[in-house]
Amino acid sequence: MPNFIVTPWEVSGEIDYDKIIQEFGIEPIDDKLISRIKEITSEIHPFLTRKIFFAHRDLNWILDEYQKGNPFYLYTGRGPSGDIHLGHIMPWIFTKWLQDKFNVELWFQLTDDEKFLFNQSLSLEDAYKYSYDNALDIIALGFDPKNTFIFSDIDLAGTLYRNALKIAKKITFSTIKATFGLNNSANIGQIFYTSIQTVPAIIKSLIEGRNVPCIIPHAVDQDPHFRLSRDVLPKLGYYKPASIQCMFLPSLQQGGKMSASMKHTAIFTKDTPDIVKKKVNNAFTGGQASAKIQRELGGNPSICSVYKYHFMFFTLDNDEIKIIHSRCTGGDLLCGECKNNLIQKINKFLLKHQEQREKAKDIIENYLLKEKVDLKSIIKEKMEKSN
Ligand code: TYM
């Protein structure tokens, strides 16, 4: 049995991504596929060359269709249960890169319904509020407003429900139990929920009345949902959605992913420079017990969360990361200097992000999709007409 857990609602332990590839039945992203992408995009994102986006489903098919003149659209999402941390942003930065390189639409789902159903202490009203608060972080990353549609499930309930019904009818309770580990104490909304997360994978096909390829960038925890989508959608006459999947930005402590429920070991987009400094200074490192020993023996980047933050997010320049690695293992770079370097990079990133997040408040309406069903005014109008 693996000593880690990866489901959409729980990620813990030391994750073995090779095992995940086997167990989930996803394909590794190899150098051949990376070269194929590069032929189209001319440059390649370090998240690919570093194998942070490490797995996929049907990416070759998506590229085949694209090259035949049948472009895809992007679909991704967020479960709005609190503030955004750096881990969430990783797949979104990559999604933006894909949007820019392929010039395609992005459909962005905010699953306030999911978070209400799965989080016992969250009210529906608060989940809905977080949808719009989190949308500011998404917009701050610079998605193209002409090509980006952001919606809360509550606000698009009509379209989602109408289509989720057809999906739900094809999924049994025993499949839900086996896929997500839900048991008889799950509430009935939780059992139904995955059918709502599947709908955006066909939303362009619904709108256009023809099948449109869809690819979903996400971290590997969301794969169980889309495994089901891929099983059900062909039965309804649609394409299987493709996916491109990343690893987790880890927690600042040892093991596990960066998680909003462990506030001291995650960096949030709203954190101040002082908070960032404190969190990084308390991080788990691969350093030795003393500076003297570290100078003699060197540090161990392979277990160091500070090094992982450099490698996965903040030091994407290849020469620079090599220098950090060799200075660390050679005993020349001590943890204090390495942490300070990271603190500066995180704070520079957050300063810009926070500015963009403020500006997003003025342009949010350019991105949002809502189905307006105002029953009060419809009834009032009807009464006025009949008088
Ligand atoms: P949520 O809000 O848990 O996460 C949003 C996105 O962030 C990814 N993620 C991470 N990536 C890297 N490092 C981490 N530490 C980390 N933690 C989370 C998630 O995989 C996700 O891509 N049910 C979904 C919302 C959703 C969705 C989608 C996500 C609806 N439709 C389509 C992806 C694609 C959720 O609660 O995500």
Structural overview:
There is one protein chain. It is built from 18 helices and nine strands. By secondary structure, it is α/β, with parallel strands linked by helices. The protein folds into two domains: 243 residues, Rossmann fold; 103 residues, Tyrosyl-Transfer RNA Synthetase (Orthogonal Bundle), CATH 1.10.240. The strands form two sheets. Strands 3-4-9-8-5-6-7 form a seven-stranded mixed β-sheet, with helices on both faces. Helix 12 links the parallel strand 8 and strand 9. It is globular.
Present the secondary structure layout.
Elements: E1 4-7, E2 10-13, H1 17-24, E3 27-28, H2 31-41, H3 46-49, E4 53-57, H4 59-67, E5 73-78, H5 86-102, E6 106-110, H6 112-118, H7 124-140, E7 148-152, H8 157-168, H9 173-180, H10 188-198, H11 203-208, E8 214-219, H12 223-232, E9 242-246, H13 273-281, H14 291-297, H15 305-314, H16 318-329, H17 335-363, H18 375-386
Parallel strand pairs: 5-6, 5-8, 6-7, 8-9
Antiparallel strand pairs: 1-2, 3-4, 4-9
CATH superfamily of the largest domain: HUPs
Q: What's the CATH architecture name of the largest domain?
A: 3-Layer(aba) Sandwich
Record the strand order, biggest sheet.
Answer: 3-4-9-8-5-6-7
Q: What is the CATH level 1 assignment of the largest domain?
A: Alpha Beta
By DSSP (H or I, 4+ residues per run), the number of helices equals 18
Each distinct ligand: tryptophanyl-5'AMP
Distance between the termini: 71 Å
Largest β-sheet summary: 7 strands, mixed
- The gross shape turns out to be globular
Helix content: 40-55%
Rg, Cα atoms, Å: 22 Å
Mean pLDDT: 95
Q: CATH topology of the largest domain, anyone?
A: Rossmann fold
SSE class: alpha/beta
Number of domains: 2
